[in-house]
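User: Please predict the structure of the protein below. I'd like the answer in C-alpha cell form so I can feed it into my own downstream comparison script.

Assistant: Understood. Taking the following sequence of 162 residues as input:
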Amino acid sequence: NGLAKAQKSDKWGYINKKNETVIPFEYDEIGYFDGELLSARKGDKWGFVNDKNEMKIPFEYDEIGYFSEELLNAKKNNKWGFINGKNETVISFEYDEVNAFYEGLAGVKKGDKWGFIDKTGKTVISFEYDYVGNFTDGIAYVMKGEKEYYIDKNGKLITPAE
C-alpha cells in the first residue's frame, strides 16, 4: 500500500513514500498490515489499528497469532482462543496453545495433548496427540509418542509418516 514499517528512537510506526508519518511512532512492536489491519503492541498488550491509526481491536491481548479463515488466534489471561475482526470471541479462551485454522480445522492443546476443533469450537479430533501440524489437502501430520502419522479430517489414520 505504499507504506513502510519504520523505527524512530525505540518506537515503531509507518511512513509513506514521501517519508511522512502515517502511523505515529508510538508502538513498542508493530507487525505488517493483514488486509486492512495492523497488529501492534503497546507495553505488554497487543491490538490492531487500521491505516489511519484508529483502534479496531483493543490492546488487551497477551499474544496474538494471525487471521486465518477470518479468525485470529489470540491469548488472554494465559489462555488461547479465537476472535473475529470485530473483536468478538468466537471460540472461548480455554486452550494452552493453538494453531491457526487451515481447511476449517485448528490444532489446539489442552494440558499436554493436542486435538482439532472446527470454527464453532467443537472438538472434531480428540486430544490424544503430542504434536499436530496443519491440514493440507485433507491430511495433517501428527505425533503420538515417538510415532509419526498422517490423519484425515475425521482423525482416521492414513499412513505412518516416513
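That's the full C-alpha cell string. The longest strand covers residues 21-27.
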